[in-house]
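Q: Hi! First time doing this. I have a protein sequence and I read that you can turn it into a structure. Is that right? Here it is:
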Amino acid sequence: MARVSSIVTNFQAGELSPRLEGRIDLQKYSAGAQTLQNMLVFPQGGVTRRPGTQYAGSSKDGGKVRLINFEFSDTQAYVLEFGAGYIRFFKDGEILTEATKTITAITKANPAVVTSNGHGFNDGDRVFIESVVGMVELNKREFTVAGKTTNTFQLSGVDSSAFTTYSSAGTAGKIVEVTTTYGVDSVTEIFEINHVQSADVVFLAHKNHEPAKLTRTTETSFTLADVAFIDGPYLDENITTTTITSSANTGTVTLTASADLFVSGHVGALFQFRERVEIGHEAWAASTAYAQNDLVHFEGNLYKKTDAGSDTSGTQPPVHLEGTETYGIIDWQYQHSGTGFVKITAVTNATTATAVVQEHNFLVLPAVATSGTTQWSEGSFSTKNGFPRAVAFYEERLYFAGTTAQPQTIFGSVTADFENHTPGTEDDAAINVTIASDQVNVIKHIVPGRFLQIMTTSAEFTLSGGTGTTAVTPTNVNVLRETTFGSGDVRPLRAGASTIMIQKGGEKVKEVTFSLDTDGLVGRDLTVLGEHLARGGLTDMVWQQEPELVLWFVRGDGTLIGLSYDPANNTIGWHQHPLGGSGVVESITAIPSGTEDQVYLSVKRTIDSSVVRHIVFMKSIYFNQDVEDAFYVDSGITYDGSATTSITGLDHLEGETVQILADGSTHPDKTVSSGAITLDRSASKVHVGLSYNSLVETLRLEAGADDGIAQGKIKRIHGITARFLDTVGAELGPDTNNLDRLPFRDSSMAMDTAVPLFSGDKEIFFPSGYENDAQVVIRQSQPLPMTIVAIMRRSNTFDA
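A: Yes, that's right. Below is the predicted 3D structure, encoded as structure tokens:
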């Protein structure tokens, strides 16, 4: 059976959209493209060349990184570079730095010494230098500060003796970096982080780390801190005879257990104490005499008389829940509502631990804590019990899920109070629910949608308040099993009205949508149209909504895979995108940039015998119709200025052969030496980077025959009409070994100007022999755009 992946169009005369106006049901065709390499499926019908990638920087010390998006606003979006023990940031196509310092001099020495009055840098800081005039070898590069003085600093390990002499200008900015514990023990941890954003805060979840939050405090300042959970969540209350006694009910206390209980993994854990105030204390009563320090309860809350002497109560009982208030002539101080909790700071031995009383909606621990009680609960999150691996927002609550001790439990915060897990039965109290199932389903991800979708290792569930728009509350939680695919480690995402998930095993992509017919979730296998492209497993994905609807995936071998995904118009088309040179993709994300979504990639390469990771972003599919702006190189840069033959800033491609587009025309390839190349002719707009090929190979021809179909019969293609849109340069033939370059320049065009973009038909004599397959191959190997709207073949089928 012929593959039907990357179905683009029937590629047969009479069945094509005339240009891009018509829409085609791509799934109904049995013919189309057998291979699409670095070609994107257009939902409107046709294929276009993948744009190039622009170099934004390199990962810290060339280490493996994961890219995560952070969208504070349409104009302030960041890409987070998560590496082993750190986070760095990219914004507007460059590494993010603090306010830059002006450079006034740079020596030609080993090491180079930079003068910048009052720079404020410290030894070990990473700085980014740009806009230097003269010693251009330093521009757009990252350096480590050493030997700093008040007004100077060295560039560690940089010998500038042979560099061009410094002339003027230049800035140095300290690279913004946040220290973390992720990936320190194993870099694979950074790919297991789950994350969700609310305004200027990103909440992070990982099974081996306390939940944390990354907060944007200014445009160039970020802080990372563990989430300070308030009052929970907790495991079920103790049912053994083991008691815990607190040495005091405020401040730093010593906890003593009546049996072995504490382990080192309890450090950081919460422990809650509970009492029934109506049993241990008198009820408040009107017209009753109370002395100083008397305790009374009213409606489940405990109060202490703090004013001196004995006074008689009036008719108004104390009802406040914080601080001290006066009722009549008595000052009542709120104590607690039956519970209080502590945080373990150290474990001495199995029966002794040190803790700090956590004040929240209570002033002191319940009295039973100091006398010894079995009514205690252990916190759900700790090194001992594990930490949640999944996080999401749903109905104004922050949900965590999937700890080691409670792999099937979902923890929802108090409504609109994301770090508060105070248990209760009120509608806005915290939610703690465990999936009831006939097998253990470890929760891997939770995704908000019409319902809260719970993705586990073997099934998918929904959590809701039941039917309609009924809200979820502690007493109204409905969990249903929906499908049984099982989720892998890659974080699912929302694309349009669907959830896209990579199934366990990594080789199937599932589209999960809500169906009115079943009143639940249903799934569709998207890889059935291109199952071979996912073999080896998919390790990352992102949704690019603008300018075209594309799901991007990273395969285990580092190949970039795309899926044009427009279900509303029945458009699904797979394509693969090998990068130029030795590049393999390790991580991918996308952030808004103007009217488009900008796709960022972390690309592993071997450059000048060293392994590096380039952080690059994909250029726009659309440009301003000027061929000079066409960007079709990988890890490339752009020079835009006065006409020159010297292009610098290519240190990241040292020793590589690069492809060049100079003022809209192709230029002979050059090899980068000392971070620069010299052009054969001067140009004012130059794009330089690694080359990559784009290829379309049609399926075997089915043109019909007198006695049936043409499959298996001898055929010959004797002519081709190829319809292009905004294209310059292409090769066409029966296979990759027999391709002829199509002419796009004619005698009316000036030879010293770039060939303009072409839209229309090219009539091509096709030197094909007699064969069974009768395929057509079109390739673009130049750094120029190519969009194919239609391929119309003229052929003969031989029935004998």
